[in-house]
Amino acid sequence: MRNNKKEDFLSMSDALKDFKSQHKLNSGFIKVDVNEAWKEVMGPGVMSYTTQIKFTGEKLFIDLSSSVLRQELSYGRSKIVENLNNHLGKEVIKSLVLR
What is the domain-level CATH number for residue 51? Predict the structure, then answer.
């Protein structure tokens, strides 16, 4: 008969973290998380002008179809990075490049 004690079980989040680290999937999951964070933090107004989101290393590259919006967002670049990192729960993004 199996002993079903609580300490014998592994939480789902711990199991997923172990799986991601064993199969070197963390970078892919971080890219997906950064894309979702951009959509949620910046909202649908900015998303309608966002043509491409690319995250490599510690830089987030955002392609925008509006030069006016690009200029406006460049003034608050550090605040955007701070908000995205807060949304992600850790400091993943070091710099933001608007193109």
Answer: 3.30.300
**In-domain check, residue 23:** yes
Q: With respect to residue 1, please indicate whether it lies within any of the assigned structural domains.
A: no
- The amino acid sitting at 23 is H
**The length of the chain, given as a count of residues:** 99
Indicate the number of domains in the chain. Answer: 1
The model carries a pTM of 0.81
**pLDDT at residue 1, as a whole number:** 46
The overall average pLDDT reported for the chain is 90
> Is the distance from CB of 69 to CB of 49 less than 8 angstroms?
yes
Domain span at 21 = 12-98
Q: Which of 56, 54, 58 is nearest to 98 (CA)?
A: 54
3-state DSSP assignment of residue 97? strand
94: in domain: yes
From CA 83, how far away is CA 3, in angstroms rounded? Answer: 46
| Strands 95-98, 59-64: pairing kind | parallel
